[in-house]
Queue: 2 jobs
Job 1
Amino acid sequence: MTHQRLSADEVLTTTRSVRRRLDLGRPVDLALVRESLEIALQAPSGSNAQHWHFVVITDAEKRAAVGEVYQRACHQYLAGPGAAGKLHADDAERSKVQKRVHNSVAYLADVMGQVPVQVIACARTGSTALPTGNQSSLWGSVLPAAWSYMLAARERGLGTAWTTLHLLYEREVADILGIPDDVHQGVLIPTAHYTGTTFKPAPRQPLDEVLHINQW
């Protein structure tokens, strides 16, 4: 299998959201996805419940159907006031970055159905309704595994992106994939090989602007 031989710090700081650079024409060996998911299962799980499930979609018709739902949800998001390209309009430098993100999100909306592999991380709760109040325990036992999958995929030469917009129409996607009513979707991760080789840490706020020691 292909490994990048990256250090832990490199994997953690260069696992970027890959949208425009996803290689839509190159097949993905399912063994790479399985390896990445095996690593994902080592993530923390509250009470060791391990109620995570992963739906891996390779069937062309199902990928296209999920892609149509995602595209519809994404276009709705892009038209709204909270879309990436409309944030930080008062900061010229940051606005440039936001517009690039906006455009890449729009691109992914139009090609999601063509991405070779789609992975949906889910939580099985035994109930058709999510718990009321604080859900950090529930999602804190699933989403770290999804992020671990993305990190492991990066090490194996695969690009991914964290997407949740399809959850506007979660039931439609559940019907396409036969997901039971007591299984709740958390994130949709497009997975493919990528073009180019340059991945680097993204610009972020200085740590001291968000760091609070002992009190706010």
Job 2
Amino acid sequence: MKTIEGGVTAAKGFEAAATAAEIKYKGRTDMALVYSQKPCMAAGTFTTNVVKAAPVKWDQEIVKNSPFAQAVVINSGIANACTGAEGYGYCKETASGAAVVLNLPETSVLVASTGVIGMQLPIDRIKAGSAKLAEIKKDTIEAGHEAARAIMTTDTVPKEIAVEFTLGGKTVTMGGMCKGSGMIHPNMCTMLGFITTDAAISKELLQEALSEDIKDTYNMVSVDGDTSTNDTVLLLANGMAENPKITEKGEDFETFKKALNTVNTYLCRKIAGDGEGATALFEVKIIGAKTKADAVTLSKSVVTSSLTKAAIYGHDANWGRILCAMGYSGVQFDPEVVDLYFESAAGKIKIMENGVSTGYSEEEATKILSEPEVTAIADVKMGNAAATAWGCDLTYDYVKINADYRS
């Protein structure tokens, strides 16, 4: 497997486009299209929030009941959440409008929205944007890149990746893009993610692969503890690589899952590192746990601790906050045997051994914690299970961004 240039247009047969529809923003692109030249098997995972945005409900229906999907229309600026029957009707109008200009069945068009909750979409602008997107779509890397930019809200950078691997002697490609910066918390996270592949695979195994993988990727990200109304990850497979179709579990399915995990892990790290106002990606690894469930709970407890996140922002090796967060997680462990390390590109330092300070150098610890990517590793010495969670530091700018988000 190797990483290649590109995103959602890297796989054979996929096209993309971006346009400025002025849905909420002016002077920037705010609508994107992902389109496959051939019908796709589609899989999806969605927010666990009881309050689900209209696009989530639409996509759940399409993924579950439609025989195939072929396009995704995405807008930023307005989330189309808490908009009632009118909002759901706009999903249908968006899909039907795109279906006409793309010459597709309405039931093959997925929709996604991100932005402010509670506002209705300007459907005339959405329809005009869809027509423009259909007109300018291309299969180029740049078209994919522009689509990744168009779906950003408070994101500061576009997030995309592509990988190449082999299935049944055929070269297969998988690419992805996502957006996410605030209102990010485990339970499918607050984000939109779109993954495309030219692999041939059954719908059932495609869904199984995605549902399995989110447990170790999207569900392990937290920026601020808020689970969104719009969380959506869509995975489209058009079969144009012409590999022997994956219809049962085996070596090819495992290879496919590995590629999917590579794409999703990369995108998750990008979301965490680009958290609203963040200056650092904060990674928490729990090792030596009794069970995987324990490791997951412990890592999430640390990565969501506001006090720990603030310490990371201040480059302060305040290890007591980490041990405290582990202690209130609900997992039973012996704090008097825990070892704790901090690691970054600047080095690795053991902060705590068997529950007490090692007498480490504060200067060295601060140097390690001053990097843009910082990892805390806690060994609880209870077993062989491990888990990794991703988050970011907590800064003054997070409050500034969210104090006037609607304006």
